[in-house]
Design brief:
It is a single chain. The protein is an alpha+beta fold and 456 residues long. 37% of the residues lie in helices and 17% in strands. It folds into 2 domains: 167 residues, Creatine Amidinohydrolase, Chain A, domain 1 (3-Layer(aba) Sandwich), CATH 3.40.350; 261 residues, Creatine Amidinohydrolase (Alpha-Beta Complex). The strands form 7 sheets. It has a 6-stranded mixed beta sheet with strand order 6-5-4-1-7-8, with helices on both faces. A 3-stranded antiparallel beta sheet has the order 9-12-13. The structure holds glycine and manganese (II) ion (2 copies). One manganese (II) ion binds next to loops.
C-alpha cells in the first residue's frame, strides 16, 4: 500500500512532540552504569532482566523487560543479565541470547552478543549460556555482590550457586564475596530523579494519553459499553506507537467507578451516569497515568457537579502544594482538607474539618492516598519517607495527583449521591521553580468537559 493511500484510509497520526531516537540513549545508560559503579565501592552488581511468563499452554504474555535492567542497558530482549564490575575502571558485561537462525525464523530477531557490544556501549558481551561458567571468575576477590534479593526464587538459587562456586576455590587463593547486598535500593534512588531525556519521554507518554482521553470523551455516549471506550483508548495509544498500556485500563461507568481497581470494562454505559477512566500508555518504557471522570451524556447532573467540583478543588489545592522542598505528604494533606470541607458542606460528614480528619470519617468516601511516584513503573520506585520523615520534593521527581470521592449506598447519605465515583488524576514533574503538569491537555473543568463533549 502506498503511503498516500495508507494515510487516506487510516487518517493521519498527529505528531505529539519530538523524541530522541530510541528511548534511553546509549550515553544515558552508560552514565547511569558509571554512577552505580561508583556506589558499588569495588563490588560487583549482577542484574537480570525479567523472565518470559507463560499465559496459557505454550503462549506467553507480551514480554516486558525489567525496569531496573532496562534503565541501565536499554536492552529489550529476555534472557539477559548485566554484570557491572565496580572499581577504578568499571566494566559493563552483558550476557544475552546468541543469534540463532532457526529461532529467529520462528520467534523474531535477536541482537546477539557481537552487535550488542557496540549498540549498547558494553565493554564485554557473552552468550547467556556462558553465565554460569563465567560468574565465579567475575565474583572472585569481589568484596560485595549487589543483586536483587528475594525477587525471584530461581534467581536467588543461582546467586547462591555462584557464591558456593567461588567459595569452593578459596584454597587456590581466591576470596569470595563477604556480603550480598540488595542492589535495588540504590537503583530506586537513582530512578526517583528523572533526567532531561526521561522527562522528554514522560512528556510524550503524557501527550499520547491526553489524546486518548480526549478521544474517549468525544466517543462516549449512552448505549456504548465500557469496552468500546477501552478500545478507543487502546487504538489511540497504539497508533502513536505506544507499546502497551502502562497498567490495565479502568473504564468504569456509574457505580463501577466506586470499585477502585475495576478492570472488567464490560458494562453498558447509561444515560445520566458518570464514566471514570483511569488509563495511561507506556512510551519507550515510561508510564503515564491519567484519570478523568465525565458524564456519559455530556452534561453533569446537579449532584454529580457538586461532588465533581469538590474533587477538582481538592486537586487544585494539592497541585499548589507541589514545589521543591515541600514534604511529599503535603499535597495529600492539602487535598484531604478540601475534600473534607466539601463533604461537610454537603452534609455527608458532620463536625469540624479538623475533627473529621482526626476521626478519619472522610475515609468512607476517600480511602486512598493522593498520589505516587511515576516513572518506568506506574507506581514507581523510591522511598516516600526518609529517616522517619516525609521526603522533601526535588526537581526531577515525577508524581501523580489524584484525589477522588466514591459514594457507596449508605443510609446516612442522600440517595442522589449514591454510586457516584469521581477521580481526577494528573502527572506532574517537580521543577526548580515549582511544578509542571504534563497532562494538562485533558479537559477537567466542568465547562471544558461539557464543551468538548458538545462537539460529538
Ligand atoms: N492507575 C493506577 C493509579 O492511579 O494508581
Ligand atoms: Mn495513579
Ligand atoms: Mn491512575
Amino acid at each position: 500500500m502506498s503511503r498516500v493511500v495508507a494515510k487516506k484510509r487510516l487518517g493521519s497520526v498527529p505528531k505529539l512532540g519530538s523524541v530522541p531516537d530510541g528511548a534511553d540513549s546509549v550515553k544515558s545508560c552508560q552514565t547511569r552504569r558509571r554512577h552505580l559503579a561508583r556506589l558499588l565501592a569495588g563490588g560487583v552488581a549482577v542484574i537480570p532482566t525479567a523472565p518470559e511468563r507463560l499465559r496459557n499452554a505454550d503462549t506467553h504474555y507480551p514480554y516486558r523487560w525489567d525496569s531496573h535492567f532496562h534503565y541501565l542497558t536499554g536492552f529489550h530482549e529476555p534472557e539477559a543479565v548485566l554484570v557491572l564490575v565496580g572499581g577504578k575502571t568499571p566494566r559493563s558485561v552483558l550476557f544475552c541470547r546468541p543469534r540463532d537462525a532457526q529461532s529467529e525464523i520462528w520467534n523474531g530477531y535477536r541482537v546477539g552478543p557481537r552487535a550488542a557490544r557496540t549498540r549498547y556501549g558494553m565493554d564485554e558481551t557473552h552468550p547467556i549460556g556462558e553465565l554460569e561458567a563465567r560468574m565465579p571468575e567475575l565474583l572472585a576477590n569481589c568484596p560485595t555482590l549487589h543483586t536483587p534479593i528475594g525477587l525471584d526464587d530461581a534467581w536467588d538459587r543461582r546467586v547462591t550457586g555462584w557464591l558456593n562456586a567461588v567459595r569452593g576455590q578459596v584454597r587456590s587463593g581466591v576470596t569470595a564475596p563477604a556480603a550480598v547486598c540488595e542492589v535495588r535500593h540504590a537503583l530506586d534512588e537513582m530512578r526517583l530523579i528523572k533526567d532531561a531525556g526521561e522527562i522528554r519521554l514522560m512528556k510524550q507518554a503524557a501527550a499520547i494519553s491526553v489524546s486518548a482521553h480526549r478521544r474517549a470523551m468525544l466517543f462516549t455516549q449512552p448505549g456504548h459499553s465500557e469496552f468500546h471506550v477501552e478500545a478507543e483508548l487502546l487504538h489511540e495509544f497504539r497508533r502513536h506507537g505506544s507499546e502497551a498500556p502502562a497498567y490495565p485500563s479502568i473504564v468504569a461507568g456509574g457505580a463501577n467507578a466506586c470499585v477502585l481497581h475495576y478492570v472488567e470494562n464490560h458494562a453498558p454505559l447509561k444515560d445520566g451516569d458518570l464514566l471514570l477512566i483511569d488509563a495511561g500508555c507506556e512510551w519507550q518504557g515510561y508510564a503515564s497515568d491519567i484519570t478523568r471522570t465525565f458524564p456519559v451524556n455530556g452534561r453533569f447532573s446537579g449532584a454529580q457537579r457538586d461532588l465533581y467540583e469538590i474533587v477538582l478543588a481538592a486537586q487544585m489545592a494539592a497541585l499548589k502544594a507541589i514545589k521543591p522542598g515541600a514534604p511529599f505528604v503535603a499535597y495529600h494533606e492539602a487535598a484531604v482538607k478540601v475534600l473534607v470541607r466539601g463533604l461537610i458542606d454537603l452534609k455527608l460528614c458532620r463536625g469540624s474539618v479538623d475533627g473529621v480528619i482526626e476521626s478519619g470519617d472522610y475515609r468512607r468516601f476517600y480511602m486512598h492516598r493522593t498520589g505516587h511516584w511515576l516513572g518506568r513503573d506506574v507506581h514507581d520506585v523510591g522511598e516516600y519517607t526518609v529517616a522517619g520523615r516525609s521526603r522533601r520534593l526535588m526537581p526531577g521527581m515525577v508524581l501523580t495527583v489524584e484525589p477522588g470521592l466514591y459514594v457507596r449506598p449508605d443510609t446516612r447519605v442522600p440517595k442522589v449521591f449514591h454510586h457516584i465515583g469521581i477521580r481526577i488524576e494528573d502527572d506532574v514533574v517537580v521543577t526548580a521553580k515549582g511544578h509542571t503538569v504534563l497532562t494538562a491537555g485533558a479537559p477537567k473543568t466542568v465547562a471544558d468537559i461539557e464543551a468538548l463533549m458538545a462537539q460529538r
